[in-house]
Amino acid sequence: MQIVPRAATRRRIHSNLWGLAVSLLVLALSVWMVIVPAGIASAQTPKDDHAASEPKIHIIPTLGTNVGVIEGENALIIIDPGFPEENASEFMRKLRELSAKPVAYVFNTHAHYDHSEGNGLFAREGAKVIGHSNLKYSSAHVDWTFSSRLTFKEDGLTLEAFYIPSHSYSDILIHIPEANTLFLGDSFTTNSHPTFYAGGIAKQNEVIDLALSLADDDTKIVPGHGVVSTRQDLIAYRDKTNALYDHVITLIDQGWSERRIHADEEYQSRMLAFNGENRSEFLDSTAVRRFAMRVANSEALPSVDLDEQQLELITGIYRQTDGATLEVVVERGAVFLRRTGDFIAELLPLGGEAFRMRAMADVEVSFVRAGAHEPPTALLFRNGEDAPVEAVRSGTP
Ligand SMILES: [Zn+2]
């Protein structure tokens, strides 16, 4: 079956000055949380003395992930220690060549294991792990979370973090003003194509536009994977991302299958523009093969609007026969399915009682109920050809 969306259903925010002004206004109004921990000796830096204490930042690429090391006056902050225990000694050796200071804090740009697998290692040594509250719905260890925006001041350092879910449901952009450095996590990579399957092209453009508004020509822009880049590099990335997206959406609108899109010459050349390391298998990688499928199953689905009452009815806790629980919650009009310590994903309405798990062609969730105005008695989770898993409604979150 071809997916033929109604053109008007697509939410698109082209990057432009108006969009930027709106997003900055939204940021200014959103929850703004400031943490000033008392853990380690606080630095008495005068306000006008920034230049004298510009923090040192190092990048230690480990298993392909850019791991950031920020040197405060007394301690270190690590960003994205995405390596397992067996690779820790290699990382620690490189770290100790740079500094003997203890690691006091760890930040994750998002929950994916290749950015968070080493959290526990540092937590056991006394570091506090900080990230977006959706890290709770992953296997990542986390101690402190925030929901929208965080200003973190400690040890002569300032880290500003902004929640913009583009690549994943826990993405944060980290800005370190005194070091003129930005960490974009996997909202920006220099050796792979864009993967904005959680927030779509609108959130992809929002995070890039925010980064560009914070950056000048000297800003160091750290991608989740690949080489440290400049503002100009990020502008080029945004432009080729939008060109690729526009081309794919046009082909989906024309009813092209994913296989046909993958064989299209223009699609292939636009994709190859992201092959920053000239990998020979790039075009045939699983990731590139499923890009069109994921766009089709996130932003090109037929639009179905659910009213507030409908959304409220399906909200709840659902219990599987093995005791595991799933939560259905509604945030800003969007429906999410989540399990603590495991996963979170948006559910997109397909009509009737059926929902598609965003960007996942094979996963459908449906609700069992007596009538459209009754609360569901259960939900059914179906993954491809597997038998559906039933979870019985057992209350509200
Ligand atoms: Zn990722």
Description:
- The chain is 26% helix and 27% strand.
- It has ten helices and 20 strands.
- Helix 5 runs antiparallel to helix 6 (231-253) and helix 6 (231-253) runs antiparallel to helix 8.
- The longest helix has 23 residues, at 231-253.
- The protein is an alpha+beta fold.
- Residues 110, 112, 167-168, 186 line the site of zinc ion.
Describe the biggest sheet? 8 strands, antiparallel, barrel
Care to count the β-strands?
20
Number of helices: 10
What small ligands are held by the chains?
Answer: zinc ion
Helix content: 25-40%
Please trace the helix and strand order, writing H or E for each element. Answer: HEEEEHEHHEEEEEEHEHHHHHEEEEEEEE
General form: globular
User: Regions with pLDDT < 50 over 5+ consecutive residues?
Assistant: 1-32, 36-52
What fraction of residues sit in β-strands? 25-35%
Structural class estimated from helices and strands: alpha+beta
Level-2 CATH architecture of the largest domain:
4-Layer Sandwich
CATH class of the largest domain: Alpha Beta
Radius of gyration: 22 Å
Q: What is the CATH fold-level name of the largest domain?
A: Metallo-beta-lactamase, Chain A
CATH H level of the largest domain: which superfamily? Ribonuclease Z/Hydroxyacylglutathione hydrolase-like
